[in-house]
Amino acid sequence: MEDGSHSGGSDSDLIDSDGSYSDRTHRDRSYRDGGRSSFSGSSSDDDSFDRRSARRRYDYSHRPNSYLEDDRISDLPDLILIQILSLLPLTDAIATARLSKRWRFLWKMVPNLAFSPYDHHSNARPSALVSFIDKVLLLRERSSINKFSVQLDYRREFRSAVDVWLHVATGKNVEEIYLDLERDRGAPYTLPKNLYTNSSLVKLTLRDCNMNPNAVFSWPSLRILSISYDDEFNDNSIASILSGCPVLESLELRKCVDVSRLNTMSASLKRLTIRSCDMMQISAPKVESLSILGFTETTMSLDLPSLLHATLNFELRIVKKGSKDSYQKSGRLMTYLLETLNGVEELKIGTWCIQVLSVLEMQNLTCPTTTCKRLILNTSFTRWDLPGMANLLRNSVSLETLVLNMTRASGGRGEILLRKKDGFKKLNQFYNELDGKKYWNSQEGALVNSLQGLKIVKIIDDNVYNTYDWYSECLLGLLQVILKNARMLEKVVICSNKIENHGSLRLNSMEVAQTLLSFPKASPSAVILYYKS
Questions:
Q1: What is the average per-residue pLDDT within 101-112?
Q2: In angstroms, rounded to a whole number, what is the distance separating the alpha carbons of residues 270 and 289?
Q3: How many CB atoms sit inside 10 A of residue 481's CB?
Q4: Of 100, 244, 359, 515, most Cβ neighbours within 10 A?
Q5: How many whole angstroms separate alpha carbon 383 and alpha carbon 380?
């Protein structure tokens, strides 16, 4: 192996001159451009190409040493060079083999292997990518693998190849596997039996792969597990996995539609992410962080007494959009979740959930009181968000840090749903006539108590599509209320990517500074920091 040749191929067969994956053989290549279209075939070619290319690009006439003698990077120890190569895309790391003899075999010792059709070097067909992976593993068969990552448009004929890759990786005591085998049609890839028992795996991510639901799992070192789009994964599967992962710390389930319950007494499981699963019941006494994301259809039952951090950034999947019954279900779910998560230290809420609270607010239904110290609102900051934000702020009685992460509205679903039903005509009229600055002024009296302990306000403004006239005036209206009533306020930080001189879409930073400095402050020591990115 150390001579760089093998019956199955050589370094020259791996990539073309532009870095894309090649499915041609070495003898089919052309050297008419002086060796730039392929890896060099011999050491003499390597050296001559190095010297010619160096003389073309640099003038070394004033230096006492030759180009090779002045190559300080190549003089570094192997471990450092391998570390440098591990930071590059794999095709770039392989391309360094053409530099000189010193570099020819270093890429084979890179412990992290990541293969993807989305690599900036490659527009490869799936079959070319499969061939490329085969050759890379063959040429570096004596080297260890710490991380093995594959993104592939999977087809049934690739099954045996993927089986071999996993066999090679697990045979080298791989610690991290990322397997994303997206498919347009056909049966998904099913994990081989040898992967269900593995003592070296620390992190496992599976996308669009199936596991045998009746398998017995033994992953004694696994700490992070993420499973997505598993058609056969069910309640028994998750119970079996948890029993075979004694040190599991983080679990993510994404679109595992047949998983409805998660009950575990695991003392190690601390982080749980549920994304677009119809989870009805979660009982995990030691979990400290919960994220509910994507879509959900059902109500939930939560038993999480140790929870410290919660993220609610989901939408309720509704069959009959716009109906009052739909909003009643949404409101009941949000009310239950906020009641259940009352004791968390950090609460993060997304736009759809905020808009559900807006509907409750306009129906004179307040959300439950929360004692969170840090509140993060991922909001599009439209008219449809304001009442929900006010509802949350008014009932956050222990608030110390407020973060507003301004993002582009994802379709404005709350707005669309409300407009489709005549039963919400009053609400529609209110929203259409809502003046943002006046609204926050009208809420000042109700917000005074919840602002007393507020110390830090951070606004991350990535919403490049809002206009100055309404959005900026609304934001300044909220900041005016905060500055006027937050007696313990230490700082307001505004991070904006706004581009000045771009019509009305951008808020001039000097205007912001002058306006904010003109507002009265309840806390004389409060500072206002404005950053542009």
A1: 89
A2: 6
A3: 23
A4: 359
A5: 9
Task: Write the CA distances from 446 to 371, 392, 394, 476, 508, integer angstroms.
Answer: 17, 11, 6, 18, 31
Beta-sheet pairing, 289-296 with 271-275: parallel
Share of the chain above pLDDT 70, in %: 74
Cβ 189 vs Cβ 210: under 8 Å: yes
Which amino acid type is present at position 131? S
User: What DSSP designation does 157 have?
Assistant: G
Question: Which H or E run includes 90?
Answer: helix 90-95
- With tokens 């992962």, the residue in question is 245
**Residue tagged 């909220």 (tokens):** 478
Instruction: Determine the average pLDDT of the residues in 148-155.
Output: 94
Select from 248, 242, 244, 291 the least CA-distant residue to 263: 242
Residue 103 vs residues 2, 88, 225: alpha-carbon distances, Å: 12, 14, 36
Give me the DSSP letters along 7-28: TT--GGGTB-TTS-B--S-GGG
Q: Exposed, middle or buried by CB within 10 Å (0-12, 13-18, 19+), for 356? A: buried
69 confidence band (pLDDT: 50, 70, 90): low
Residue 181 DSSP one-character state: -
Beta strands in 208-343 (DSSP E): 209-210, 224-228, 250-254, 261-263, 271-275, 281-283, 289-296, 301-303, 309-316
Q: Is 484's pLDDT higher than 90?
A: yes
Measured distance CA(432)–CA(284) in Å, rounded? 44
Question: Residue 349 belongs to what H/E stretch?
Answer: strand 346-349
